[in-house]
Design brief:
It comes from Listeria booriae. The protein has about 400 residues and is α/β, with parallel strands linked by helices. It has twelve helices and 15 strands. The structure holds pyridoxal-5'-phosphate (PLP). Pyridoxal-5'-phosphate binds near residues 58, 135, 164, 185 and 198.
């Protein structure tokens, strides 16, 4: 291979330029404008969400959701531990406290039993969380029936971090539409991109009106600039929404390509004992944003870092799974509930064993074959062994 094979790169359709040109032709260069409205409309139609607010990032959308749930100083918010830090950062922007919840092994997402224990304890302490942030990692939906039932029984609202799971479904329903709020990300490495951006969806359309208000500096209706609340500059630009409009039109193709990557790898590696593909929950469909595996580390002397290093030497980018947030220095001494008390946390096991593979919708068949052979070859070497070519 003469060019490096990367984890996940933007995949334009060609139509993006037309919508950007339209914005230039009509001088809608300023934030907001017809591309934003169209982009929101497309997200709404695709996901079935009742209302949508396009934002400058997925992180901004989480921040808005927390604000709309009136999370403030010293409030408590629960969040998945096994995720990218953006899921939890907005909790700290608001001065609130966080409790992290472990994963369960069947989806790698929030463990219902750990959540139940955490909520029972919180109730005893009269400090129920103002929100639970449930993340759907790598495209796989969390166990929403169980999680929704538990949250409802305690009357705690849900924010779904569907940054990685746009287009995934659970029992036929779109990821991001189960909670009071859902968020998507259109960052450069996501399944579709606006180069940078996000979206907030909500069950209650009134909440989206409020989100738009907060996202545009909380300007009151007046002839002068009148402000009663602190707001943000969080709306998506009309230029970037032009990219998003075109990307939404090819979302189904992008999902199909990523699902194909996963199936291809699964088929190629089914005889390799050290490799296990990320599990898929029955009744759910993953967009397979990233194809991920775990290594049976009893069957090889290599860690995911060793594999990553050897793959890099063959021009292939791989990456270990998310490092659990409860073990991040910035969240030292934050409460954490593990899946099974007294056992190693599920998310820690996954971090110890897991690896993300090149997963772009623009990978060629030749590249997929190269990656699959490379991993097989790398796993046949021992820790100290060198692989220079395949
Ligand atoms: C990418 C991502 C985000 C943040 O989205 P941005 O648009 O980059 O702000 C949040 N949560 C998860 C799980 C993500 O993967």
């Amino acid at each position: 291979m003469n060019k490096a094979i990367l984890l996940s790169t933007p995949h334009m359709s060609g139509k993006e330029q037309d919508y950007i040109q339209e914005a230039f032709d009509t001088n809608w260069i300023a934030p907001l404008g017809p591309n934003v409205t169209e982009f929101e409309q497309k997200i709404k139609q695709y996901t079935g969400a009742s209302a949508v607010c396009a934002t400058s990032s997925g992180t901004a959308a989480i921040h808005l959701a927390l604000r709309l749930l009136e999370v403030g100083q010293s409030d408590m918010v629960f969040c998945s531990s096994f995720t990218f830090i953006a899921s939890a950062n907005p909790i700290k922007y608001l001065g609130a406290d966080v409790t992290f919840i472990d994963s369960e092994p069947e989806t790698w997402n929030m463990s219902p039993q750990a959540l139940e224990r955490a909520l029972a304890d919180a109730k005893k302490e009269h400090r129920l969380p103002k929100a639970v942030i449930i993340v759907h990692l790598y495209g796989q939906s969390a166990k929403m029936d169980e999680l929704v039932t538990i949250c409802e029984s305690y009357g705690v609202p849900i924010i779904e971090d569907a940054a990685e799971s746009l287009g995934s479904t659970y029992k036929g329903q779109q990821s991001g539409t189960f909670g009071d709020f859902g968020i998507y990300s259109f960052n450069g490495n996501k399944i579709i991109t606006t180069s940078g951006g996000g979206a907030l969806v909500a069950k209650d359309p009134k909440m989206i009106e409020k989100a738009v208000f907060l996202a545009t500096q909380a300007k009151e209706k007046a002839l002068h600039y009148e402000h009663e609340q602190i707001g943000y500059n969080y709306r998506m630009s009309n230029i970037l929404a032009g990219i998003g409009r075109a990307q939404m039109e090819v979302l189904d193709d992008r999902i199909a390509a990523r699902q194909n990557n996963f199936r291809f790898y699964a088929d190629q590696w089914k005889h390799i004992q050290e490799v296990e593909m990320m599990p898929e929950l029955p009744n759910s469909v993953s967009n397979h944003w990233l194809s991920t595996i775990t290594l049976d580390i009893d069957k090889t002397d290599m860690t995911p870092y060793d594999v990553m290093d050897k793959m890099q030497k063959l021009g292939i980018e791989t990456r270990v799974l998310w490092k659990p947030l409860h073990s991040q220095p910035v969240f030292a001494a934050t409460p954490f509930y593990e899946h099974v008390q007294g056992e190693e946390a599920v998310c820690e096991q996954l971090f110890r064993k897991g690896l993300c593979l090149p997963s772009g919708s623009n990978l060629t068949q030749e590249e997929l074959e190269y990656v699959s052979k490379a991993l097989e070859t790398v796993l046949k070497t021992n820790k100290g062994g060198v692989v220079s070519a395949i």
